[in-house]
Batch of 2 targets.
Target 1
Amino acid sequence: MPCTSKPSQASSRLLILLLLLAATFTLNTQPLVLQGANVVDGKSDQPINNVTVIIEDGKISKIIKDGEGIPRGGKVIDLNGKYIMPGLIDAHVHIRSFAAAETALRSGVTTVRSMGVAHFTDVGMRELARQGTLQTPEFLAAGYHVRPTPDDGFFLNFPELSHLMKDGIKGEAAIRKMAEALISRKVDWIKTNATARAGLPQTDPREPYYTEEELKILVQVGAEYGIPVAAHAHGDEGGRAAVLAGVKSIEHGTYLSEETLKLMLERGTYLVPTIAIVNDLVEPGGDYDQPLLEVRGRHMLPRIRETASKAYKMGVKIIASTDTGYNPNSVMRLGLELEELVGIGMSNAEAIAAATSAAAEFLEIDNHTGQIAEGMDADLLILERNPLQHIKAIHDPLMVVNNGKIVVNRVEWTKE
Ligand SMILES: [Zn+2]
């Protein structure tokens, strides 16, 4: 008996394995059919009403008006007039863990640009997400901030550069060395601090850190590898130096003067104003909960709103972001920044574009995401109400789809 049972056990195991493989294969290839949808495409200021969106192999394969050409055998979800919009792009985050990445994704963020994190966590998450190992937003990574005193982790990762600990990252040779070290770890962006930080009580965010000449070196090294530079800048002096040096974006920009904004307009420099996180300095709890920062927030908040509003009215390109780590105690979500962008005068459609199609152009990923259109990645949200009329609808996605995979699904029990 033992001799005959062995092969039969083995063959039944093989059969189960084959069935499992077949099931997985069917699940992966089964089209998702979202019918009765109103589509907010991320560009236009009017929805496309009553269409069927078909998702196959992680992409939006078809958007059908009259119901013809719906594939057989797909998973059909009737949206009953709910709204589909592109997955959100959060252009400034500090995500440090898988759990935080998942929190971002479940809030509707399907792409992030990491603007500073230790130990190349962002590069690692980008790779795991690309492999499909980890269900996270798509990552664009920057590794460490290039600043006079880098994060301790930088020297732990590059002990061979410990000679730079004494004088800090100042002057051409040191700046070049640090930038090349980051590039060797395959970052997509270089992030620098052109001024001091706002979120630390002991630093004054108006203090410039680098000269135009120093920032130019960074931009040049980046350009040699096709990597853009983003400059954190609150104060005007450091901000202007960064714009003149040729950075692609200014992060925050709280105290930028009209002349600097004009330079940004002329040169096509983007502004990523991060207004809502400044409100977090003022509010109890959340990312920041510190009396001195609360006081600072009270004078920064009206100022950053004023500067961002001026920039928008002048025609400077504005991009949405949270500047959060999506930590367990964080209440920052991209919808709050979209409300702020509407508050500075943008239309709902412009604010939505700043977190979808315009953000994708800024990040040069518009060939595959940022829009609801045929051929794009199936990165999308389903909302109960039209965000072109109700911007707050973005706070509560009923469904989140990331590269064709349903991550959040509260649609199927919300239909009656
Ligand atoms: Zn930041």
Note: The chain has three domains: 1-29, 31-85+376-409, 88-362.
Target 2
Amino acid sequence: MECELAVTVDAVCQRCLEAFRLQLDAEAKLLLLELDETADGYDEYEVWELEETTLRPKDIVEELLVMAMPFAAMHADSAACKALSAEAGDKEEMTKPFAALRAQMMQD
Ligand SMILES: [Zn+2]
């Protein structure tokens, strides 16, 4: 099986915690085999051993996309990332959550 995937998913930036659209691309050459089965001549293919003889293509797509997902999703464009633009300019923005928390503690 050979496939190329290109999707856009909703993600949360781990730097600024804002939701954003993340572009994911994945390419795969898979050799789908039964357990302990071998096949010659497919060196460039990644072997996936299947426990069942039937499969849903959707499950493979899902697996490939999960693997393509970065460990920590972040804005690729630093101009779009609030955490990075805050560092460059307005530092007050960064301390605001703590100021709000302090104000709340004073009230209690
Ligand atoms: Zn961000």
Note: The chain has one domain: 2-77.
